[in-house]
Amino acid sequence: MADFSAAAKPAARPQNPNFSSGPCAKRPGFTLDALKDAPLGRSHRAKGPKAKLAEIITRSKAILGMPADWRLGIVPASDTGAVEMALWSLLGARPVDVLAFESFSEGWATDVVKQLKLPDARVLKAPYGQLPDLTQVDFSHDVVLAWNGTTAGVRFANGDFIPDNREGLVIADSTSAAFAMDLPWDKLDVVTWSWQKVLGGEGAHGMLALSPRAVERLLTYKPAWPLPKIFRLTSKDKLIEGIFAGETINTPSMLCVEDALDGLRWAEGIGGLQGLIARSEANLKAVADWVAGNERVRFLAETPETRSNTSICLAIAAPWFTALDAEAQAKAAKAIATLLETEGVALDAGAYRDAPPGLRIWGGATVETSDVAALLPWIDYAVDMVAQAF
Asked: Of 283, 300, 301, 357, which one is least surrounded by beta carbons within 10 A?
């Protein structure tokens, strides 16, 4: 093995080495003291705790600029639970197009085709780094997509490809997009996310936002399959209104609730949505400026307009790396991520297990641009050091 101490190390180090893409870095200045008002040991149905759950809903809607006639609820099982609730509750009334271009959107395609077994489903695929051909999407169908591909670092630049007069619903997994990107609410019908991404909250809780068109579907269509209790959004042909007022389906963690509120208050204090977006875009720019002219790395996302400002995915482009076979590339990429972790400059920065070998740097708003800038020379160092072992 190579001697990793042979080359000069960068002088600066990130103050916070947490670059995981979920759970993500806590907001700057976070301490456990921020959770001191958590109503631990209380029922989530009691007046005070229920008010905190409702506060998450109202603050989230306000920061995101969600239309007043949308419904927003807190649901079990993180973003995954929110997406599954939407798929199992809403699909089946129309044919379905699923846009699959990374691991999570591939997972939604598997649910639609192999679990729900919908007969009129199409999967429009693209390799990592690209979006599917959007001209092939039929918007008379329901459409399922991930607004930001967390494991590919590819996002939709805008919603212009979605017609205003669409017949089907657009269901958008937005877990690494919400609070970091301008979501086109008029182009979407279901939007989901979790607390553990852009605002750095703790996991296990999801958010499900429904447009009036989605609510109408719930009230006029009944799936042919049985729905587990945690998926049910209606009762006796009526919307379960409590879900959208802080009456959660299952028992939430009030510690996580307090943490989510702390993140929302912090977001308000830095300028709301535009402040959050600006911080994420600054992180992306720092990486983009470094990648330009860098022979060691490249963006996995091929088109600049579709590069994520949250899950920033990098492929190793050094000639020694690209000359390796697939198995050796996987080992080399893991060695690079391990070296960064060993040095304490980037924790959990390896590419997702299903993605091409490389690195993934979380650039959401809780990450300081100064920390991103301090990390980048370390990636150069790690690529050069690992080269000695291959």
From this structure: 357
As beta bridge partners, residue 297 has 316
Q: Say which residues have a Cβ less than 8 Å from residue 40's Cβ, sequence separation at least 6.
A: 254, 255
Give per-residue pLDDT as tens, 173-204: 999 999 999 999 999 999 999 999 999 999 99
Q: Select from 195, 191, 214, 197 the least CA-distant residue to 205.
A: 195
- CB distance 17 to 345 below 8 Å: yes
Q: What is the enclosing helix (H) or strand (E) of 124?
A: strand 121-125
How many other β-carbons are positioned within 10 Å of the β-carbon of residue 339? Answer: 20
Strands 170-173 and 190-194: parallel
Q: From residue 205, how far is each of 82, 234, 248 by CA, in Å? A: 9, 20, 10
Residues 10-35, buried b or exposed e (16+ Cβ, 10 A)? eeebbebbbbbbbbbbbbbebeeebb
Nearest 10 degrees: CA dihedral of 114, 205, 89, 352?
-30
45: left (phi over 0), alpha (psi -120 to 50) or beta: alpha
Residues 6+ apart with CB under 8 A from 360: 19, 21, 151, 153, 311, 312, 313, 314, 349, 350, 351, 352
Tally of CB atoms within 10 A around 306? 20
pLDDT in tens, 117-153: 999 999 999 999 999 999 999 999 999 999 999 999 9
Write the pLDDT tens digit of every residue in 228-242: 999 999 999 999 999
Per-residue pLDDT at 7: 67
Q: Look at the block and give the residue holding tokens 């307009």.
A: 305
Residue 151 near residue 104 (C-beta atoms within 8 A): yes
Global pTM reads 0.97
**Contact indicator for 113, 121 with CB cutoff of 8 Å:** yes
Whether the Cβ atoms of residue 67 and residue 74 lie closer than 8 Å to each other: no
Instruction: Report all structural domains of the chain as residue ranges with CATH numbers, in order of start.
Output: 32-267 (3.40.640.10), 272-387 (3.90.1150.10)
Between CA 136 and CA 147, with CA 142 as vertex, the angle to 5 degrees is 75
